[in-house]
Design brief:
There is one protein chain. By secondary structure, this protein is mainly alpha-helical. It folds into two domains: about 10-230, no CATH class; about 265-445, no CATH class. The protein contains 16 helices and no strands. The chain has helices at about 10-40, 45-80, 85-110, 115-120, 130-140, 140-155, 160-185, 190-215, 230-260, 265-300, 305-345, 345-360, 365-380, 385-405, 410, 415-455. α1 (about 10-40) packs parallel to α7, α2 runs antiparallel to α9 and α2 runs parallel beside α10. The longest helix is centred in the C-terminal third of the chain and has 42 residues, at about 415-455. The model has no long low-confidence stretch (mean pLDDT about 85).
C-alpha cells in the first residue's frame, strides 16, 4: 500500500516511518542474538566463534550489495513523488536488472574464493573449516536475499514501511524455528545454522513477492515497461554505488579500530563489546530516522517541495537531539546493570564498558546531526558527499589507530572525532544544496507558469 509523503505533517510522517524501521531493526537484533545463543547451546562455543570469525567479511559483502540496492530505490521515491507511474515501472525493471548482475557476480566471486577470504582475515586455524562452510552457504543465499532487498527498498520508497516490518517479524521468528529444527532436532551443526538462515530468508522473499502482487501492483512491469534505459541505469548507479561504498568504508574503519583495540587484551575487548551492545540500540534509533528522511526527501524533491524537506529535516534533527539526551542519561545511569547481565561481577570489565560508553554518548549531538544531514542529502540525490563523509571517518580512525594505538583513552575518541570531521563537512554542504535546489524548483515553477499563461487563449474583444 503506497503512502504519499508529500502531504501532511512532515514530522508525523517521518516519525511513523522511522518507528516501523526501528521496530524491524530491533527485532532483527533480538533474533540474531537468539540465533547466537542457540548455536552456543546446540553446537558449541567454537561454532559460535567460527560464525563470528566469518561475520566481518559476510557483513562487508552483504552490506555493500544491500546498500547499493537500497540506494536504487531513491530514484523510485523521487519518480513516485512526481506522479509518473509509467516511468516508475520502468525504474523497477532496471532495478531488477542491475540487482541481478550485481548479486550474481558477487555470489560467484565469493563462492569461488570463500576459503581464501576466511584465511585472509587471519581466522584462527580451529575455526577455518567451520567459518568457510558457514560463509559458503551464506553467500549462495545472496540471490534469494536480493529479492527482499529490492522489494523492501521499493516499498519504502513508495511510503510503505509497515509491510517490510511485518515480513521482518515473520522471517525473524521463523529463523529461530528453523534453527531449532536444524540444530536441536536434526543436530546438523554449523551447517544447520546456515540452513536455518537460508530458509528464513527464502520465506521472507516469498512474502515480499506475495505482497508485491497484492499491495504494490503499481511496481509490476510488463513488456511495454521493461526496456533497458541507459539514462535510468546511470542515475540508479549514481545513487546506489555511493551508498554501498559508504557502508564498505565505515565497515573497514570499524575493522581498523577493532584491530587496534584487540591489542589491549581480553578485558578491554570484552568491555568495549559490552558498551557497543548498548550503543547499538541508540544507533538503531538514529539510523531509522536517517532512513526515513531519505525516502521523505526523495518523494518531496520529486514533487518540488524543497520547503517540506527543509522543515522535515530540521524538526527531525531537533527531535533526535532530545532522544539522544534521554538515551544518554539512561545509558549512563543503567548501562552498568546491562553489562552485569553478561559478565556478572567482573567489575573491571564493567568499568571499561562504562568509560567507553560515556566517551561516546557525550558526542551524540554530533552523531545525530551527521545522520540527519547525511540522510537529507542522500534523499536529495547527493550521494557522493555521503561517501566523502565515510572517507573522512575512515581517515580519522586510521590516523588515530596508526599513531595512538597504545593509548586506550585516545582510541575511545576515534569514533567521536570521526563524527566531528564529517559533520563539519556536511555543515557547509547541506545548506548550500538546499538553496541550490530551492532556486532550481523556483525556476521550474516559473517556467511552468509561463507555459500555462501562453497556452490560455486570449479573450476576443467584442466588435460593435
Amino acid at each position: 500500500m503506497t503512502k504519499d509523503l508529500t502531504k501532511g505533517s512532515p514530522t508525523r510522517l517521518i516519525i511513523s516511518f522511522a518507528l516501523s524501521m526501528l521496530a524491524s531493526g530491533l527485532m532483527s537484533y533480538v533474533y540474531s542474538t537468539t540465533d547466537g545463543l542457540m548455536v552456543s547451546w546446540y553446537v558449541d562455543v567454537d561454532a559460535l566463534g567460527a560464525i563470528n570469525a566469518a561475520s566481518p567479511f559476510n557483513d562487508l559483502v552483504v552490506g555493500f550489495a544491500a546498500s547499493v540496492i537500497s540506494g536504487f530505490s531513491i530514484l523510485a521515491g523521487r519518480i513516485f513523488g512526481s506522479g509518473d507511474l509509467k516511468r516508475l515501472r520502468n525504474v523497477m525493471a532496471n532495478v531488477v536488472y542491475l540487482a541481478a548482475v550485481l548479486v550474481g557476480a558477487a555470489t560467484v566471486i565469493c563462492a569461488v574464493f570463500c576459503r581464501t577470504f576466511v584465511l585472509m582475515m587471519n581466522t584462527p586455524a580451529g575455526f577455518v573449516d567451520m567459518a568457510t562452510t558457514y560463509l559458503f552457504i551464506s553467500v549462495l543465499c545472496m540471490p534469494v536475499s536480493a529479492i527482499s532487498w529490492v522489494c523492501a527498498g521499493m516499498f519504502r520508497a513508495l511510503g510503505d514501511s509497515k509491510t517490510p516490518l511485518t515480513i521482518s517479524a515473520i522471517s525473524g521468528a521463523s529463523n529461530v524455528v528453523f534453527n531449532f529444527f536444524f540444530l536441536g532436532v536434526l543436530h546438523m551443526g554449523i551447517e544447520g545454522a546456515a540452513y536455518g538462515t537460508v530458509c528464513a530468508v527464502a520465506l521472507g522473499s516469498s512474502l515480499y513477492l506475495f505482497f508485491l502482487r497484492k499491495r504494490m501492483r503499481v511496481l509490476i512491469f510488463g513488456k511495454e515497461d521493461a526496456a533497458v534505459s541507459i539514462p535510468t541505469i546511470k542515475i540508479l548507479l549514481s545513487n546506489g554505488i555511493p551508498l554501498g561504498l559508504l557502508n564498505g568504508v565505515i565497515t573497514v574503519g570499524a575493522l581498523i579500530l577493532q584491530i587496534a583495540v584487540n591489542g589491549h587484551g581480553e578485558d578491554v575487548v570484552t568491555g568495549i563489546a559490552m558498551g557497543n551492545r548498548v550503543l547499538t540500540i541508540l544507533w538503531m534509533i538514529f539510523q531509522s530516522f536517517e532512513s526515513a528522511i531519505i525516502y521523505f526527501c526523495a518523494q518531496n524533491l520529486g514533487a518540488g517541495r524543497v520547503d517540506r524537506v527543509r522543515r522535515g529535516v530540521r524538526n527531525t534533527l531537533l527531535l533526535n537531539l532530545g532522544i539522544g539526551a534521554v538515551g544518554t542519561l539512561l545509558a549512563v545511569l543503567f548501562g552498568k546493570y546491562i553489562y552485569m547481565l553478561f559478565v556478572g561481577n567482573h567489575m573491571e570489565i564493567v568499568a571499561i564498558a562504562e568509560q567507553y560508553l560515556f566517551m561516546q554518548v557525550i558526542f551524540f549531538p554530533t552523531m545525530v546531526t551527521l545522520c540527519m544531514w547525511r540522510g537529507g542529502l542522500q534523499g536529495l540525490g547527493s550521494t557522493v558527499p555521503s561517501v566523502m563523509c565515510g572517507v573522512i571517518e575512515l581517515i580519522s580512525r586510521a590516523v588515530i589507530c596508526l599513531f595512538f594505538a597504545d593509548n586506550l583513552t585516545i582510541l575511545y575518541f576515534a569514533g567521536p572525532l570521526a563524527w566531528i570531521g564529517a559533520s563539519i563537512f556536511l555543515s557547509i554542504l547541506y545548506p548550500r544544496t538546499l538553496k541550490k535546489l530551492e532556486r532550481q524548483c523556483a525556476l521550474e515553477k516559473n517556467a511552468e507558469d509561463a507555459l500555462e499563461r501562453q497556452s490560455v487563449p486570449e479573450q476576443e474583444v467584442p466588435t460593435k
